[in-house]
């Protein structure tokens, strides 16, 4: 084992610095969004059945709500631009800009080269939870999604109803893509309602029983035209395990709402990131 240097305590005492101060991010017009939502009418819905996924579409300026309807259930959410699957949710950059878990007034950002808001959270009935004594909180962007490859690696299993596979099937059904093309577009998720954190001693990713109950919801405004997919995780409330047929699982409801004409006057979808994409290379 490496010997601890004499100045180890001084090195550990270095003061942390926020990597991406976010005070200069574009303002979130939350009051405008909430006023528009108050008079919006429901136009469609989709249900993610237990251990399965659903796809849904939302136009820019519409709202979508994910609700626990029968029992405590977590979900894995993927978002893509409705115009191109290459613009997809970027969980890592969202985490860097907002933190490990998302709540009201925070945004889901898209991947390079677009890097713009895809959806903004306008309501979260679990925002009371905060950070618990274990370092756990709700709606994380630190986990990936349960998948058959890790299951095979760790236990030799061949399980087909984990969130990665559920999202792949939903995307195939929504787009008609070949499975291998759809799978390549599935990406790291917003773990809706999931309660997670990192252990203080080993730094390992943990999950614990979600505080979600029937009637709890998280609601977004679509900042751009979206294609979404939501998986009702086979771990149920993720209190004990995932990628399993033994946990109690329940459906999740996705509802889409259309604001009244004029309710969002003055608002427009964000443009893609303004970086010139030259990367310091010579032109021509």
Summary of the model, kept short:
The chain has 284 residues and is of the alpha+beta class.
SSE blueprint and pairings:
Layout (H helix, E strand, L loop, with lengths): L7 H5 L17 H9 L2 E8 L4 E6 L4 E6 L6 E7 L9 H8 L8 E3 L7 E8 L12 E4 L7 H8 L7 H13 L3 H7 L4 E9 L6 E4 L8 E6 L3 E7 L19 E7 L26
Antiparallel strand pairs: 1-12, 2-11, 3-10, 3-12, 4-8, 4-11, 5-6, 6-10, 7-8, 8-9
Helix pairs in contact: 5-6
Short descriptors:
284 residues; alpha+beta; six-stranded antiparallel β-sheet; 12 strands; 18% helix; globular
Plain-language structure description:
This protein is α+β, with helices and mostly antiparallel strands and 284 residues long. Helices cover 18% and strands 26% of the residues. Helix 5 packs across helix 6. The longest helix is centred in the middle third of the chain and has 13 residues, at 163-175. It is globular and about 70 Å long. The N and C termini lie far apart (54 Å). The model has no long low-confidence stretch (mean pLDDT 96).
How can the largest sheet be summarized?
Answer: 6 strands, antiparallel
What is the CA-CA span between the terminal residues? 54 Å
Return the structural class: alpha+beta
Number of strands: 12
Low confidence ranges? none
The run of helices and strands is HHEEEEHEEEHHHEEEEE
What percentage of the residues does DSSP assign to strands (E)? 25-35%
Helix content: 10-25%
What is the rounded Rg? 20 Å
| Average predicted local confidence, pLDDT | 96
**What multimeric state do the chains show?**
single chain
* Strand order across the largest sheet: 1-12-3-10-6-5
- Outline, from the CA principal axes? globular
Number of H/I helices = 6
């Amino acid at each position: 084992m490496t010997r601890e240097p004499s100045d180890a305590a001084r090195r550990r005492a270095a003061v942390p610095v926020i990597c991406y101060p976010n005070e200069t991010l574009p303002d979130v017009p939350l009051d405008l969004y909430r006023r528009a939502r108050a008079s919006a009418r429901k136009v469609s819905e989709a249900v993610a059945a237990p251990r399965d996924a659903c796809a849904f579409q939302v136009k820019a300026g519409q709202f979508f709500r994910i609700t626990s309807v029968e029992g405590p259930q977590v979900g894995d959410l993927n978002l893509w631009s409705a115009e191109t699957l290459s613009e997809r949710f970027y969980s890592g950059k969202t985490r860097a800009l907002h933190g490990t878990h998302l709540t009201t007034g925070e945004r889901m950002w898209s991947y390079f080269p677009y890097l713009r808001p895809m959806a903004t959270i306008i309501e979260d009935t679990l925002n009371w939870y905060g950070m618990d004594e274990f370092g756990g909180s709700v709606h994380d962007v630190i986990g990936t999604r349960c998948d058959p490859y890790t299951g095979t690696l760790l236990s030799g299993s061949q399980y087909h109803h984990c969130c990665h596979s559920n999202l792949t099937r939903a995307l195939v059904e929504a787009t008609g893509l070949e499975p291998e093309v759809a799978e390549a577009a599935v990406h790291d998720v917003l773990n809706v309602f999931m309660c997670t954190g990192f252990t203080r001693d080993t730094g390992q990713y943990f999950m614990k029983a979600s505080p979600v109950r029937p009637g709890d919801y998280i609601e977004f405004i679509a900042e751009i035209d979206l294609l979404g997919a939501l998986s009702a995780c086979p771990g149920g409330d993720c209190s004990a395990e995932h990628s399993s047929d033994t946990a109690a699982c329940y459906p999740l409801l996705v509802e889409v709402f259309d604001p009244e004409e004029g309710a969002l006057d003055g608002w427009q979808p964000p443009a893609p990131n303004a970086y010139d994409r030259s990367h310091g290379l010579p032109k021509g």
